[in-house]
Amino acid sequence: MHPLDESGLLTRLDPHGMMALTLDFPAQCERAMQRASDAPAPALPRAPRQVVVCGMGGSAIGGDYLRALFEEYGDLPVQVIRDYHLPHSVDAHTLVFAVSYSGNTEETLACYGQARAREAMILAVSSGGELQRRAHADGVYHLQVPGGQPPRTALGYLFIPLMRLAERLGLLPDLSQPYSQMLQRLVQTRDALQMSVPYEQNPAKQLAQALHRRIPLIYGSGGARATVAMRWKGQINENAKQHAFAYTFPELNHNEILGWVKASEQAGNWSVVVLRDPDESAKIRTRIEVTRRLVGERAEWHELTAQGASQLERLMHLTYFGDFVSLYLALLNAVDPENIDYINILKAELAKVGE
Question: What three-state secondary structure class fits 271?
Answer without folding.
Answer: strand
